[in-house]
Amino acid sequence: MLEKLIFQGLIGLSLSMYLWLLAAGLTLVFGVLGVLNFAHGSLFMLGAYATFTFYGKLGLNFWLSILLSLVSVGIIGAILERFFFRRIYEIDLPYQLILTFGFILIFDDLVKMLWGGVAMIPPLPNFFEGHFQIVGRSFPYYNLFIIFAGAAVALLLWLTLEKTWWGRMIRASASDREMANAIGINIPLLFTTVFVFSAMLAALGGALGTPVRVVAPGIGTAMIIQAFVITVIGGLGNLKGAFVGALIVGILTSFGILLFPIFEMFIAFVVMAVVLMVKPEGLFGK
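Above: the chain's sequence. Below: its structure in token form.
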């Protein structure tokens, strides 16, 4: 029984890293721009479809396909921020949700028009095929790669925000937008780069999931619900909270699948409810 729990925990850890990549971008946009972007899940979906096209359809190199998908979704993110999101920074949250939810419906229909409504999955790259033994069970190499990739992104994100000039400008703008503008920070340009960066994080999560997760219309909607649960648990706008929340939701979902297959997300929602009752601002919120 212990071996089964350890193995399921590792599966949950790999799921957590997909969720972390999505929740990180969602948290960054809310923390800096003040927008709760429900369409962020659609960017995850577009990253998956772009990688599927470049790698699965066109036969390009796997790493090149991921890079091209990040660039493609980043461009879409820049267009969204410049022509749509920039107009809603100062309006109430319910109106923001209406606009971003509208983009979910638009992108789902566009995906069906371009790729059809059938679920697809490309082959796993040859260099990631195979398993290794852990606690008497076979654990895929690709899942191990996802765990390390998620941890590496968390480290690089921390270094970027804490040790670079761009990160200092982001933190200054998130803390006091008017003061940041007064000292010469180009707020509109900074907001565009933050939104593009967050879009690329979402696309990276979708791209890395392409070889092992089904690519289908609507996957962004399912993922954004889990990402929202994560941000609520960790604290809206808090990246440390997003990482911890992703670990909690991913591991609990994995054990839920093992113990309660029909209600795998039930435990995560219960944890969110408890957090809201005990600490409404989230575990790391202020």
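The mean pLDDT is 89.
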